Inverse folding.
């Protein structure tokens, strides 16, 4: 039956969610191996770490439910594949070595779908528990997106981070939807997300949601 | 009667409202005398220029009423004095000259209360119609604030702009409340508002409002 196994590309969006400070930073100044979020950067994520909707898939108990919960759930529920930069996967800047890094997330990462890692260093795919697979893509962001959309089976593709990977997709005009979660802190320096982007990248406001300690701003490509 | 004529300083807030692009700019790149808002900067103000609540005090007819209207009205209704930088008042960078500049607003500016202009060039106060007065303050932002609070008679003091004046008050930790109106455009460059500010400036989120084509984020000093 023609079409039954084809990918409905028109409904599969490329999207990301990221927490950003009032002054536009997604990580604070002076990031280090011990503190990759930079000085003060951990404050950007407090709102999500206390959500039950975040804690449960990360194997932690408790947590609260508030106006951020449906936002977080909607951003993650319909995702069939994730793309991430090498920094987010971890393992240092060089080649993979003989006892290769398996990511930050232990035996069963919280994705439960195929993940595509942007890297310059080839490596065989990695299969972990719970439907988690990591495919290492060395031929660019468009190749990673094509592979991720195929793997997502009609669901959305999320850019997990970091900021550099997101910026590459934004610059290329490939992002369909972005959720900026604005946290009322000033970091005074660090890594900006929306920098050096051409003004002809058009976005329209879809939804604005007030939640405890964070403002969620949802935009889609115009 | 003691206290009857004293200024209730604890309820008189210093506040500002400003429109900001998604990438954090309050004016676009390459501002000029003809286009002081820089390339694309006029897009930041479209939401307010079409409000009846803005048009009426500026002597224009028509306009619409939407979710931005009460936000704009609340930001302006309880203001008893305005502080602005020399750029916003206009008149060029030098001294005032013999036929001095009277501001951009004609015979009856839309403030209808005392305005204090931060400048390096002394000048006698200027009285215009409709309760508009302009006092030129050469001895710094704290002096201007003291004079403005006195003149406001218990009402709030607004910083009218531009970005430099706002930054000076933010840096000095003197701002009580700020309303950022985030417009879904990318300017790609220009003048940032929240730049070089110390992380110990604490703000807490007060209110988040979704309106057509703009997200209003209200914060107060923590």
């Amino acid at each position: 039956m023609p079409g039954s196994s084809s990918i409905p590309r028109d409904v599969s969006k490329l999207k990301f969610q990221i927490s950003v400070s009032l002054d536009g930073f997604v990580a604070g100044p002076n990031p280090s191996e011990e503190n990759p979020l930079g000085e003060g950067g951990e404050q950007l994520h407090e709102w999500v770490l206390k959500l039950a909707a975040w804690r449960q898939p990360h194997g932690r108990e408790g947590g609260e439910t508030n106006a951020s919960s449906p936002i977080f759930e909607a951003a993650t529920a319909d995702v069939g594949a994730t793309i991430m930069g090498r920094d987010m996967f971890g393992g240092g800047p060089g080649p993979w070595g003989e006892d290769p890094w398996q990511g930050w997330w232990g035996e069963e990462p919280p994705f439960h779908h195929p993940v595509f890692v942007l890297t310059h260093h080839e490596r065989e795919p990695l299969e972990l528990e719970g439907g988690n697979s990591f495919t290492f893509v060395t031929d660019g962001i468009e190749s990673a997106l094509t592979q991720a959309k195929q793997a997502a089976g009609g669901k959305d593709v999320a850019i997990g981070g970091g900021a550099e990977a997101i910026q590459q997709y934004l610059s290329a005009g490939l992002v369909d939807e972005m959720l900026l979660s604005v946290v009322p802190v000033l970091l005074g320096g660090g890594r900006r997300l929306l920098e050096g982007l051409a003004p002809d990248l058009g976005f329209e406001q879809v939804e604005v949601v007030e939640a405890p300690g964070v403002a969620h701003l949802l935009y889609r490509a115009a």
